[in-house]
Write a structure and sequence with these properties.
The chain has 80 residues and is mainly beta. It contains one helix and four strands.
């Protein structure tokens, strides 16, 4: 089946965002999409750190219990 919109279906999408967190001075703001083997997607947002390598470590730590089900991780920097 061909779908015109490749965004995940709402039931296959989860959002982990801590809106109460504030970005420390000098830190950068990131968010990550974690793709699973069942085609579901989770967005992990408001990740505040100084470099992309540490973001990767935080995402792996957050999803450590289900690493065998992860098919991909996309990390993006968010502009203010």
């Amino acid at each position: 089946m061909i779908l015109p919109d490749k965004r995940p279906v709402q039931s296959d999408f989860a959002n982990l965002t801590y809106y109460s967190l504030e970005c420390p001075d000098g830190a950068r703001k990131f968010f990550a999409f974690v793709h699973f083997t069942d085609d579901s997607v989770c967005m992990y947002a408001n990740i505040f750190t100084f470099n992309r390598s540490f973001v990767t470590m935080l995402v792996i730590e957050k999803f450590g219990d289900c690493l065998e089900y992860i098919s991909g991780i996309n990390i993006h920097e968010q502009e203010y």
